[in-house]
Design goal:
Largest sheet of chain A: 6 strands, mixed
Oligomer: heterodimer
Number of strands of chain A: 11
Structural class of chain B: mainly beta
Shape of chain A: globular
Strand content of chain A: over 45%
Order of helices and strands of chain A: EEEEEEEEEEE
Largest sheet of chain B: 7 strands, mixed
Radius of gyration of chain B: 13 Å
Number of helices of chain A: 0
Largest interface: A-B, 23 and 20 residues
């Protein structure tokens, strides 16, 4: 049973517009969420995170929104750039469990069209 | 900072052969993780170590898989004997075991078992 779901395998956006990537989770114990970006033939790289005590975290062009009641988070990229084309993974952890086991979604491939 | 270093980048082997994947974590990181990525299951945690000690190996699929961390700067993941269904990209990641510091991934080893 997938505890972290990214229901859109792919997304295409025009350069300069907003990209919105979505993620849903089922485990109510998850309290820390991250987004990773992955280029082909490379490992995932950390992009941005959010704790469950917040509902928004912003870093430059990237903003993550968390809706705990809906068990939903989203990543907004604005404006989108061709270099943002990559696979984006949502991940979640239960920091109260004393470990740092990240559960990942299957990823969304973003294509930013020049 | 050299990042997490994995070797080899690609491994092609025949069914039944032993395969050893290697990882050098980032200096100063005291937690190390092995993940496997497949199309069907996405990124799955296989095992993780804290201070060179295996903490949770519940993700290791079978007894054919084993992992060691003899010191803080080296870890191996061994598959013996290998099977075609083991074909995947294997990632090593490390982090400082402090709060929610993020995982840093290596570039992975693409394993093909024929």
């Amino acid at each position: 049973d997938q505890q972290v779901k990214q229901n859109s395998p792919s997304l295409s956006v025009q350069e300069g517009r907003i990209s919105i990537l979505n993620c849903d989770y089922t485990n109510s114990m998850f309290d820390y969420f991250l987004w990773y970006k992955k280029y082909p033939a490379e490992g995932p790289t950390f992009l941005i995170s959010i704790s469950s005590i917040k509902d928004k975290n912003e870093d430059g062009r990237f903003t993550v929104f968390l809706n705990k009641s809906a068990k939903h988070l989203s990543l907004h990229i604005v404006p989108s750039q061709p270099g943002d084309s990559a696979v984006y993974f949502c991940a979640a952890s239960d920091s109260g469990a004393g470990s740092y086991q990240l559960t990942f979604g299957k990823g969304t491939k973003l294509s930013v069209i020049p | 900072d050299a990042g997490v270093i994995q070797s080899p980048r690609h491994e092609v082997t025949e069914m039944g052969q032993e395969v050893t994947l290697r990882c050098k974590p980032i200096s100063g990181h005291n937690s190390l993780f092995w993940y496997r990525q497949t199309m069907m299951r996405g990124l799955e945690l296989l095992i993780y170590f804290n201070n060179n000690v295996p903490i949770d190996d519940s993700g290791m699929p079978e007894d054919r898989f084993s992992a060691k961390m003899p010191n803080a700067s080296f870890s191996t993941l061994k598959i013996q004997p290998s099977e075609p269904r083991d074909s995947a990209v294997y990632f090593c990641a490390s982090r400082r075991a402090e709060g929610n510091s993020p995982l840093h991934f290596g570039n992975g080893t693409r394993l093909t078992v024929t």
